[in-house]
Design brief:
Shape: elongated
Number of helices: 6
Number of strands: 0
Strand content: under 5%
Radius of gyration: 14 Å
Distance between the termini: 35 Å
Order of helices and strands: HHHHHH
Length: 136
Amino acid sequence: MHPDRRSLLFLSAATLALAATGCAGTTPSQLASDVQLIASGLASAATALMQVPGVPTATLTQLQGYLDTLKADAAAVASGPSGATGTVQEIAQTVQVVASIALPLIPGGSAIVAIVEAAVSLLPAILAAVGISGTT
């Protein structure tokens, strides 16, 4: 089954939101917003990935576990700056793992690819917000 038109429109909007965020601010609220956007964008991508034929159930379960970690980390960042550096590093590592698992399974040119790539592109901005240069 292929994603329906409504799903593709939602994914396209999420991609634009992800791409437009992350460059401007390094305030704690902007960091929390960027991290939440990454988590929700990747959750949308995972939902769409469930509709891609041939993706093993075990892989989807594994991705869901990583998404649960991202959601918890996003909540931790939103609750305050204490410990944010380690949490943001974990977020960056988790996003990279999710991307390495998901991207080979997604048909080329799909909006899902754009969402995953947009999440990865935000990593330098969120790392810089907590004083870390580059990616993990």
